[in-house]
Amino acid sequence: MFLHRKSNHVFSLWQHIVLLTVRQYEGKSYRMFAEWLFEAYYLRMFLQLSHIPHYTTLQKLAARINGTILAKIIASFIILTDTRHIFAGIDSTGFKLTQASEYYTERAKLRRRKYTKLSIGADLLQQIICNIKIRRAPTRHDNIDFKPVITKTSEILPLSIVVGDRGYDSEENHIMVREKLGSFSVIPARNEDIPIWKTYGRYRKQMKRGYSKTLYHHRNKDETIISVLKRLFGEHITSRLVKTQNRELSFRCIAYNIHRLIHLIIIFDGFY
User: Fold this and answer.
1) What is the rounded distance in angstroms from the CA atom of residue 102 to the CA atom of residue 110?
2) pTM here?
3) Which domains occur in the chain, in start order?
4) Gap between the Cα atoms of 103 and 227, Å rounded
């Protein structure tokens, strides 16, 4: 319930996580969110807050909390859907570290700053994020994120199918998915103009001979997840430190999963 046994035990870890997740929904700074809590009567009653936390309390918790805890929370949502196998898809997107527009950057002749790259492993049937990996960009190719993201996703629930775009084309990726994880991979091969007999790898040759377009088109739901994520919470990050930037993206993914799970509950309730 608390990060440390010698903490003052005023606010529990659960209360802090809920507040930081709601802050992403509201899109407010820490200071403005603490002021907004004065009006959020029902939220305070639900969380059983003895008093409203100071905004620096939330800032310190966001910097102190372990990323492993947040990763487990993100992974727990797919379990709540009673899914037995994950139809996994992987994709990545960038988040700006400043709100300055491209036009202003060019006119002011400012040096282009690096952005934060978020890679997500999601269940495409439920459109729930299962696992994420965050790194600074531009750096190496996105393919380096395939193995850690898919491996950690498989540790949550067994994988049925793994879908990725041409950016993740690699014989090693196919071998890992099909032979080690016991799943089926659909990753189109790059360089379509190169003949099959010159293409390296057994599974990459299979992809060039043909693959199921129906399965591959489910990959579009990865882009839908990213689109909703940015429309709900924006495409820039407000935190300054690398660690707090990573935590901010993790809380956004938690907020997205809550948003998606509520919609799934509404859909199923309406169906039945």
Assistant:
1) 10
2) 0.89
3) 1-65 (no CATH), 66-271 (3.30.420.10)
4) 22
